[in-house]
Amino acid sequence: MIVITGASGLVGANLIRALLTEERSHRVRAVVHHDQRALQGLDVELVKAELSDPASLESAFRGAEVVYHLAASISLSMDTWNTLAATNLDGTRHVLAACRKSGVRRLVYFSSIHTRQQAPLDQPLDESRALLDDPSAPPYERSKAAAEREVRQAVAQGLDVVTIIPTAVIGPYDFKPSYIGKALLLLARGHLPALVSGGYDWVDVRDVVHGTMQAARFAPAGASYILSGHWQSIPEVARQVDQFTGRHPWRPVVPLNVADLAEPLMKNVGRLNGSQPLYTRAMLTALQSNRRISHAQATRELGYTPRPFQQTLADTLAWLLERHPQAGSFTSPGSKEYR
After folding, report:
1. Sequence-distant (≥ 6) Cβ neighbours of residue 65 within 8 angstroms
2. Mean pLDDT: which of 201-210, 246-255, 322-331 is highest?
3. Exposure string (b/e) for 282-308, b if CB count within 10 Å is 16 or more?
4. Rounded to 10 degrees, what is the CA torsion of 309, 314, 317, 320?
5. pLDDT tens digits along 38-62
6. 3-class DSSP state of 14
7. Domain limits of the chain?
8. Beta strand pairing status for 168-170 and 66-69?
9. Among residues 189, 217, 188, 164, which one has the least CA distance to residue 317?
């Protein structure tokens, strides 16, 4: 039995499909919160559980050999610590305890590249980089760093956990869609009126899933792996989106230092929908992250090799535009989004 929390999100939707194809000797149990669109028609067992309810997690994990803990609350806001800590920190504590009580052999925990201290920016960021310890950092980053400290403590106490550290994940089967999926749709439809400089390390969800499954099979207990892809600036991504769609709208590019000063205005310029802005302080901070993120350890130990970014972007846009033909018509997720 393999159990997945956050099964209806982008990573979960792709992971379940890969497991059903490659791990046919195992049953797959998907822990769902509310949204089940990503799981419709799949041969999986659906169970309801809450990260805030330890008993429900123990029941969901019963009989599991491996648990993939993907569920997380994601926010672009700077004032959501309580909500994020309840899900990402306390929820992870409950998952760790449930794994112990249910006799789970291995937990695969999903962290984030933003749990790491990004500076020095002129040196590669790898698994040895210290965890974030900055009270002024965005709440999402702090909550995930605190959760990973809990994971490390559980490893020291004997729990078999492997930690996956992805960068900005994009790809097909983005049913909700994710924040990044929404932004790509707005770009594709010409509905994003301004860009900012800076960028991300983008990684294909299918490569993340492959690396994650390899880690679940072969990694030693306590190991951590960065699964990164390719750094691309926001203007360059927009240029490639325009090449894909054939649209060529004019969009001003605002330097990050100017955007940072004009953050209240940028929040309004970059709204994803009627209530969720894109260019928040947290997002602008992320756009200034380390560009030199190394996946050398995953390549060496897991055979991990990310595909070209152009292929990832084309596949992502093709899926998103077919599945979500009307960009800008999404229901606001508030401050919570399950991966």
Report:
1. 1, 2, 26, 104, 105, 106
2. 201-210
3. bbbbbbbbbbebbbebbeebbebebee
4. -100
5. 999 999 999 999 999 999 999 999 9
6. helix
7. 2-176+201-230+291-307
8. unpaired
9. 188
Burial class of residue 235 (count of CB atoms within 10 Å of its CB; 0-12, 13-18, 19+): middle
pLDDT band, very low/low/confident/very high, at 273 (cuts 50, 70, 90): low
Report the b/e string of 244-268 with b at 16+ CB within 10 A: beeeeeebeebebeebbeeeeebbe
Q: 242: phi > 0 → left, psi -120 to 50 → alpha, else beta; which?
A: alpha
CB 49 within 8 A of CB 56: yes
- DSSP state, residue 104: -
CB of 313 within 8 A of CB of 237?
A: yes
Considering the segment(s) 2-176+201-230+291-307 as one domain, its CATH architecture is 3-Layer(aba) Sandwich (3.40)
Average pLDDT over residues 166-194: 94
CA gap 176, 181 in Å, rounded: 9
**Cβ 284 vs Cβ 300: under 8 Å:** no
Nearest to 29 by CA among 72, 68, 55, 56: 68
The structure tokens listed for 309 are 């970014």
Angle at CA 34, nearest 5°, toward 10 and 96? Answer: 75
2 neighbors 213 (Cβ within 8 angstroms): no
Residue 331 pLDDT level (bands cut at 50, 70, 90): very low
Q: Is 237 helix (H, G, I), strand (E, B) or coil?
A: helix
Average pLDDT of the residues in 90-114: 98
Q: What order of strands is seen across the sheet that includes strand 230-233? A: 168-170, 199-204, 230-233
In this prediction, residues 21-30 reach a mean pLDDT of 94
CA atoms within 13 A of residue 223's CA, in its CB half-sphere? 18
